[in-house]
Automatic annotation (TrEMBL):
<dbReference type="GO" id="GO:0000921">
    <property type="term" value="P:septin ring assembly"/>
</dbReference>
<comment type="similarity">
    <text>Belongs to the EzrA family.</text>
</comment>
<dbReference type="Pfam" id="PF06160">
    <property type="entry name" value="EzrA"/>
</dbReference>
<feature type="coiled-coil region">
    <location>
        <begin position="268"/>
        <end position="330"/>
    </location>
</feature>
<feature type="coiled-coil region">
    <location>
        <begin position="379"/>
        <end position="431"/>
    </location>
</feature>
<dbReference type="GO" id="GO:0000917">
    <property type="term" value="P:division septum assembly"/>
</dbReference>
<keyword id="KW-1003">Cell membrane</keyword>
<comment type="function">
    <text>Negative regulator of FtsZ ring formation; modulates the frequency and position of FtsZ ring formation. Inhibits FtsZ ring formation at polar sites. Interacts either with FtsZ or with one of its binding partners to promote depolymerization.</text>
</comment>
<keyword id="KW-0812">Transmembrane</keyword>
<keyword id="KW-0132">Cell division</keyword>
<keyword id="KW-0717">Septation</keyword>
<feature type="topological domain" description="Extracellular">
    <location>
        <begin position="1"/>
        <end position="2"/>
    </location>
</feature>
<keyword id="KW-0472">Membrane</keyword>
<protein>
    <recommendedName>
        <fullName>Septation ring formation regulator EzrA</fullName>
    </recommendedName>
</protein>
<dbReference type="GO" id="GO:0005886">
    <property type="term" value="C:plasma membrane"/>
</dbReference>
<feature type="topological domain" description="Cytoplasmic">
    <location>
        <begin position="22"/>
        <end position="563"/>
    </location>
</feature>
<keyword id="KW-0175">Coiled coil</keyword>
Length: 563
């Protein structure tokens, strides 16, 4: 039973598929049939008949026959054969030979597409032929008018055309020959070929007119204007030489000789009617002439600059010389008190050397100006470079001078710090005197002595000649540290001693009640009289803290408020 159901389903599927495939093929057959009929009804015969209005000879007759035969072949043979092919495709589809039917339809569609291409080509050629004939009839009139006007212009301006007149005359003769060829081609029905000749002749006439209008101006430029410009340039050059300008670097004779040769070569190009190349050459010559004038103008401007800048540089050198003398004197003075680093010495030597070089260079510049050895533009470049070097030297001088000042500044700052250290140490002594302590512990006296020794050493080193600032700075740092340590220790000893005394006095109230407190307070008093203030404080504090805890902090607050 399962097999029967499967077979029925398969049969139904095949029937549905066959029905769907036939419908698709029928639809395609209808489309191709419509396309075939549309091609058959094309008015190509009417289009071809347009050519009958032309002279039916030569190329026109050949194309007419070719187009008509091609169209007849399509209508009487190829399209009818398609009917039979379409019938075969339909019959194959009815018999479920779908692949065969599709193959036939593909061939028919390819044939129809080929026909479309051929019909389009025929229509295009017909339009070209008919349009060419119409345009030829209109354009030949305009072309002959242009020829007549061009010929008239030539005859009127032939004298200004110089040697090129014969070339233009030959050109007009060739164009006239082209008109004759055009007439011949037209009479033979070769309208497309005639069109090419006519278009070419019109372009030739246009080119001839443009060249005839350009040649006289080019000849004037090459025969008159440019040679005149070169003469003026040469005269200007000579005048400037007489005025003392050095212009050897320009090489004017060589330049003018080269330009004259190029003018002659450009004239030959004009005589060959190579107008564009000639114009480019003239433009280049004008550019180069302008450049030569720019060089001469630059010499004039450079001369003005040189004589003005000469005074500026002279003043700058004089100012720098004064600065160098001041720096030299200051360096000599500083060297009496300071040991200058070797690098500083080398810097000073280098600055002196640079200044001497600049003086020598300026002397050479002055000699070059007086003896006229170099052009002003070259001297100007030398001066501009020297101005930069002068500015650099001036800046370096300032930096070196500031460094010398800073050396003395270090000495003054050291002396000021030394004065402050002495004041600080004196203040510590006064604090100690005011405290009325019975004596001072040995470690404190050693600290104060160390600070005093450092101060003495700094003072002695400041008297050395030359000064060693680096070493003095090191000793000064030690002195600063020692004085600060002594001042801090002074304050600590005074505070400790006052607190110890205060604690002992406070503890006296417990002597009679506590024998242990009395013993410790006696020990504290002994330590106090032996200048052992810290030990005295510890002994007294332990004694009273044993009977009245926390009292030490209260006493510390009271003592600090009194200090």
């Amino acid at each position: 039973m399962t097999y029967i159901i499967a077979a029925v389903i398969l049969l139904i599927a095949l029937v549905v598929f066959g029905s769907f495939s036939r419908k698709r093929i029928y639809k395609q057959i209808d489309r191709l049939e419509s396309w075939k009929m549309e091609i058959m009804n094309r008015p190509l015969t009417e289009e071809i008949s347009k050519v009958k209005g032309l002279t039916m000879v030569g190329e026109t007759e050949e194309k007419f026959e070719s187009w008509r035969n091609d169209w007849d072949e399509m209508v009487t043979v190829e399209l009818p054969n398609m009917d039979e092919a379409l019938f075969d495709a339909e019959e194959s589809a009815d018999k479920y030979k779908f692949n065969k039917s599709k193959g036939i339809l593909r061939r028919i569609e390819s044939q129809l597409q080929g026909m479309e291409t051929r019909i389009k080509a025929i229509s295009t050629e017909i339009d070209e032929l008919v349009t060419s004939e119409e345009l030829n009839r209109e354009d030949i009139i305009e072309a002959k008018e242009q020829f007549s006007e061009g010929k008239k212009y030539f005859l009127t301006h032939s004298r200004s055309l110089g040697k090129t007149a014969s070339l233009f005359e030959a050109e007009f003769s060739e164009v006239n020959t082209m008109f004759a060829q055009f007439d011949e081609m037209t009479s033979q029905g070769n309208h497309l070929e005639a069109r090419k000749i006519l278009v070419n002749s019109i372009e030739r006439l246009k080119d001839l007119r443009e060249k005839m209008e350009s040649v006289p101006e080019l000849l004037v430029l090459l025969l008159s204007d440019l040679p005149s410009s070169l003469t003026d340039l040469k005269d200007g050059f000579s005048d400037m030489e007489e005025q003392g300008y050095i212009l050897n670097h320009i090489g004017i004779d060589k330049e003018i000789s080269s330009m004259n040769e190029r003018i002659a070569a450009l004239l030959e190009k004009v005589y060959e009617l190579e107008i564009d190349e000639t114009q480019k050459g003239i433009d280049q010559l004008n550019t180069e002439i302008d450049q030569l004038y720019d060089l001469l103008e630059n010499e004039v401007i450079s001369k003005q600059f040189v004589f003005k800048e000469k005074e500026v540089i002279l003043q700058s050198l004089a100012d720098l010389q004064l600065d160098m003398e001041k720096i030299r004197a200051e360096a000599d003075m500083v060297s009496l008190s300071y040991q200058l680093d070797q690098s500083d010495v080398e810097v000073h030597k280098r600055l002196e050397k640079m200044f001497n070089k600049l003086q020598t260079r300026f002397a050479l510049i002055e000699h070059s100006i007086e003896e006229k050895k170099d052009s002003y533009s070259v001297i100007r470049e030398m001066m501009e470079e020297m101005a930069v070097q002068l500015e650099d030297l001036k800046k370096s001088n300032q930096e070196y001078q500031e460094k010398l000042v800073n050396l003395r500044k270090d000495e003054l700052e050291t002396k000021e710090k030394l004065k402050e250290l002495r004041r600080r140490l004196l203040e510590a002594r006064r604090m100690m005197q005011k405290s009325n302590l019975p004596g001072l512990p040995d470690h404190y006296l050693m600290t104060i002595e160390k600070a005093e020794n450092y101060i003495i050493e700094v003072s002695k080193r400041l008297d050395d000649k030359p000064l060693e600032i680096a070493e003095i700075t090191e000793v000064l740092e030690n002195a600063l540290e020692a004085v600060e340590e002594g001042y801090k220790e002074t304050a600590e000893i005074i505070e400790t001693a006052m607190l110890a005394e205060k604690v002992i006095q406070y503890g006296n109230r417990y002597r009679s009640s506590y024998s242990s407190v009395s013993v410790r307070l006696i020990e504290a008093e002994i330590a106090f009289r032996n200048f052992q203030y810290e030990e005295a404080l510890n002994l007294a504090a332990n004694a009273i803290e044993s009977v009245q805890p926390g009292i030490l902090k209260e006493l510390e607050v009271n003592v600090k408020q009194k200090i």
